[in-house]
Specification:
The protein is of the alpha+beta class. It has a single domain, classed as 3-Layer(aba) Sandwich (NADH Oxidase). 42% of the residues lie in helices and 14% in strands. A 4-stranded antiparallel β-sheet has the order 1-2-4-3, with helices on both faces. Helix 2 packs across helix 7. Bound molecules: flavin mononucleotide (FMN).
Length: 205
């Protein structure tokens, strides 16, 4: 789909046709495309948990405050982020020329290793970017999605066996819609959001 149409067609789906399965191949193809997303220093903080099993979904339904799209959708993709991604710099930069390695590996260590708040910020930034890519990739392949942060992160982490350094960033439902999309909700006109050069200048010079 042309990006112009894709951007307009993507909507948050909350009502899925519960009888539709999604194959491993279809999920992988969406996640493979989304993995081309950018991340700071190419650290690729994202990890994905794909849940299709009814018993796991039913627990997630409870931990998502009974949002029914969790049980109706074909798969839930929990986008997670690795707080320790900076420790993987050696592996990620392994095949880079030595001047690149020598520059970036110590820099990554210096920036992240003693700053847990920045580690978390980066997980959220990368997780947000890859989540958006998943939603566009899915739409382009004919699947609808719904982003969700309405969940209890502690309970979800426990149920999905997340290690201590892996945070749930966002849950994405994936499936085929039961109903036609509703009218798009309010969007600010871009002019109301736009500032030129510095904040507060509504006019371009
Ligand atoms: C970070 C994030 C969290 C969201 N959490 C939920 C959620 O828990 N449940 C829900 O029904 N929708 C959730 N939404 C969907 C928003 O309500 C939706 O994106 C917004 O109303 C705009 O509608 P649209 O996506 O159809 O353009 C979330 C969206 C984002 C980006």
């Amino acid at each position: 789909m042309e990006f112009k149409n894709l951007a307009k067609a993507r909507r948050t789906e909350r009502s899925y046709d519960a009888g539709i399965d999604i194959s491993d191949a279809d999920v992988k193809s969406i996640l493979r495309l989304a993995s081309h997303s950018p991340s700071a220093f190419n650290l690729q903080h994202w990890r994905f948990i794909v849940t299709r099993d009814e018993s796991v979904k039913s627990d997630l339904y409870e931990y998502c405050y009974f949002q029914k799209q969790i049980v109706e959708c074909s798969a839930v993709v929990t986008v997670c982020g690795n707080l320790s991604a900076h420790l993987e710099a050696q592996e990620i930069y392994e095949y880079q020329p030595s001047e690149v390695k020598n520059k970036f590996i110590p820099m990554i260590d210096a920036i992240y290793s003693t700053d847990p708040a920045l580690q978390r910020d980066e997980v959220m930034r990368s997780g947000g970017l890859v989540s958006m890519s998943i939603m566009y990739a899915a739409k382009n392949e004919g699947w609808s999605t719904g982003p969700m942060i309405g969940f209890d992160p502690k309970k979800v982490s426990l149920r999905l066996n997340l290690e201590e350094n892996i945070l749930p960033v966002m849950m994405l439902t994936l499936g085929k819609p039961k109903n036609a999309a509703e009218e798009r909700a309010h969007r600010y006109p871009v002019e109301e959001l736009l500032h030129y050069e510095t904040y507060g200048n509504a006019r371009s010079s």
